[in-house]
Amino acid sequence: MPDHRMPVEPFRIKTVEPLRRTSRPEREKVLRAAGFNVFNIPAEKVFIDLLTDSGTSAMSDRQWSGLMVGDESYAGARSFFRFEAAVKRIFGFKHVIPTHQGRAAERILFETLLKKGDAVPNNIHFDTTQANIEVRGADAVNLVVPEAFDPDLEAPFKGNLDTARLEALIRSRGVKRIPLAMMTITNNSGGGQPVSLANIREVSRLLRRHRIPFFFDACRFAENAFFIKRREEGYGRKSILEIAREMFSHADGATMSAKKDALVNIGGFVTLNDDRLAERLKNSLIISEGFPTYGGLAGRDLEAIAQGLEEVLEEDYLEYRTSHVAYLGKLLEERGVPIVKPVGGHAVYVLADRFLPHIPRHRYPGWALTIALYREAGIRSVEIGGVMFGKKDARTGREVYPPLEMVRLAVPRRVYTASHLHAVADAFERVAKGRDKIRGFRIVRQSPRLRHFTARLEEV
Ligand SMILES: *Cc1c(COP(=O)(O)O)cnc(C)c1O
Is the peptide bond before 342 cis (omega within 30 degrees of 0)? Predict the structure, then answer.
């Protein structure tokens, strides 16, 4: 069971960034100018920003001092070797190739491996992963266990991959059309839910039997390892490093966005064992990212990632991190706000259609809640529901909606204190009081793909 007392931050604050409060009329003006889309709101007009945990971490004093000792040599920089050693210590693969962020790692990997008509299984593909697979004309296939879609089910590893469905996919597509399989830890698009080591082992065995390379999408590997330590039998006494190494020992490689569990603002990498594939990835890297000892990064970035990868393994940090996010979930539940359970590693997901039952799906209750939260308290969240994933049915012309209509409150790492979380919960309480008056939305302008980023809406 998670500990629900107020978690104490295992750090003190040495540098501060002032937050500005806005007035209600000011926020009203901002919303109109933004076309009622929180992506169009200038960050300066946001009081507490829970849009994403990606690239929004606070760096430590050691990471900041790493920026000063970064070696900016074009080739063979000292900072590269420190970065390479830090990645190898945890991941254990032979080759480490830096990239400017996670999706660049995905691009060079898929560009090299995928052909039209191929399939790539995953528990749930993150949107950039899916897009990088689909531009090659291949299929991104999601095979998460069905529990992932039951928001009330308190299961420990709702990120697991369904091995029966994986086996069926291998049988129907054939081994030759599956150049690699992936697993996302934690499962971001499935609520930040972890994957168990038992499941990793089972998936790995199956893939090895068919000689299909197995790659992790490892953005939140440390949060996943901590959940294994807490929830899986036999791991309670192991260190996070031991658990992470065991996880990666079952795979052939990994892609990673350092903007999550490497605790930095930019960066990524791909790491793998296969010599020939590594050679081909480096050739592709040189064309658009950079020489293989810097990828798309500065020496100082590599230095900060190396340091972040050490800090993220600290149990005090991970204990605080996961209980900090769970604490927000608990505060919301106490105020009667319906959320996805259990709370994942990096975010709380509010069930917006239950919170605003008077708004029908085609009036986008999740979107309405993101606007209500900003209007009430200057808090920025993101809709993960009908606007983000709604699709027009080609036959009926009607819009079809994803199973869950949610608002995600992603918590940046080491940035907000427990009292900020209380401010968020209090805002929800005020929004709940006037919820009957909250109105739905209509889309007035949208782009054909990823419309949530640019759409403009109006209240109805
Ligand atoms: C963020 C993320 C990516 C992409 O990484 P970027 O650094 O944003 O390009 C890929 N997979 C998952 C699971 C992510 O969370």
Answer: yes
pLDDT of the residue at 4:
56
Class of domain 61-311: alpha beta
- What pLDDT digit, counting tens, does each position of 210-221 carry? 999 999 999 999
CA distance 301 to 307: 10
What is the whole-number distance in angstroms between the Cα of residue 219 and the centre of ligand 1?
7
Q: What is the CATH number of domain 24-53+314-459?
A: 3.90.1150.10
Q: What is this structure's pTM?
A: 0.95
Q: Torsion over CA of 328, 334, 338 and 343, rounded to 10 degrees?
A: 40
> Could you write out the DSSP letters of every residue in 378-393?
-EE-EEESHHHH-EE-
Q: Could you give the CA distance from residue 423 to residue 349 in angstroms, rounded to a whole number?
A: 17
Locate the domains of the chain by residue range. 24-53+314-459, 61-311
- Find the residues whose C-beta lies inside 6 A of ligand 1: 54, 101-103, 126, 128-129, 184, 188, 217, 219, 257, 259-260, 268
The separation between CA 215 and the C-alpha centre of its own chain, rounded to angstroms, equals 17
The best mutation among 109, 127, 132, 188 to test binding of ligand 1, ranked by most ligand atoms within 8 Å of the C-beta, falls on 188
Q: DSSP class of residue 395?
A: T
